[in-house]
Amino acid sequence: MLAQYDKAAVAKRFTQQAFAYADHAQVQQISARYLLDLLQDGLASQQITASNAHFETLLDLGCGPGVNSLELADLARHYLGVDIAAGMVEAAQEQSLASESLRQRIANSTVSFLQADMEQLPLGNDSVAGLYSNLAVQWSNQPQQLLHELYRVLAPGGMAWISTVLNNSLQPFADLRRDYLSQDGVNAQPTLLQWQAWLQQAGFSVRYIEERRETSWFTNLKELVRSISRIGADQQRTHAAPQLSSREWLSHQHSYELFRTELGLPLHYQLGYFVIQK
Ligand SMILES: C[S@@+](CC[C@H](N)C(=O)[O-])C[C@H]1O[C@@H](n2cnc3c(N)ncnc32)[C@H](O)[C@@H]1O
Q1: Using CA atoms, how far apart are residues 117 and 115, in angstroms rounded to an integer?
Q2: What is the pTM of this model?
Q3: What is the 3-state secondary structure (H, E, C) of 154-190?
């Protein structure tokens, strides 16, 4: 069973990182592009009928600093970005105001942002035609309950495009850390098959499912660890992230060097992609 996140701490941490986040979120950007392409392909194919090719309301769950808002807003009559971190909502609003088209749409309330917990959305039943969520649902304390909540707010026939972090992520960092600590250095995550079962139990039809490995490359370990921290991935479920002594850190650096390639030091993420329908 997965342990629980302290949601106030998660929100605080993402608020602190909100304005620096985009510079460190290479994997998030790769994943967002892949998920947006799946969404565009879905719109172009038979998955979606002409009547809802442009969503009435498109929910961007865990929208972060609004990196995907412009592209998503183009697909919807009403775009709604939701995030638990006040700083992320603020950053999303600020960066949207820099875009002429979004500024106008914020003014006429067809683009909006809301600070809310994805597990308790202040939205009505069947109120959302489409849902996009890039690398946010891994922060759920109760994925099964979250999926019931998403099922509740999606309109019948509504589609969702979701990506998440799976087990065996942040390698080889996670395994090396485990060698030095008496506990895991990173959080356990569900497998792709666990998510698939939960999606089906919640009532969704699973239209597409895929596991992919994405890698970020770093010139040194300090930069690599900083990137994990900047995107909040070092937030522990039940305890503070443990610190290594300077001797352990040197040894850790030495071990990590064995993984260096001409691209630098790797950090692998296992990501799950789901296209589902209510
Ligand atoms: C890794 S970021 C992804 C941001 C954005 N979707 C992107 O593609 O860059 C995860 C986001 O999920 C948000 N988040 C975490 N827990 C949440 C919750 N319970 N409800 C809503 N948002 C949450 C965080 O504040 C953060 O902005």
Answers
A1: 7
A2: 0.90
A3: EEEEEEEEEEEECCCCCECHHHHHHHHCCCCCCCCCC
Residue list, ligand 1 pocket, CB within 6 Å: 7, 10, 14, 25, 28, 32, 62-64, 67-68, 82-85, 88, 117-119, 134-136, 139, 231
Q: Where are the domains of the chain?
A: 7-169+187-215+270-277
| Single-letter amino acid code for the residue at 253 | Q
Distance (angstroms) between ligand 1 centre and the Cα of 64 equals: 5
**Between 143-153 and 192-201, two packed helices, what is the crossing angle to 10 degrees?**
50
Best CA proximity match to 147, nearest among 21, 256, 48, 276: 276
Condensed to tens digits (0 to 9), the pLDDT of residues 217-236 reads 999 998 888 887 766 655 55
Helix (H, G, I), strand (E, B) or coil at 214: strand
Residue whose pair of structure tokens reads 């039943």 in the numeric block? 125
Fold of 7-169+187-215+270-277: Rossmann fold (3.40.50)
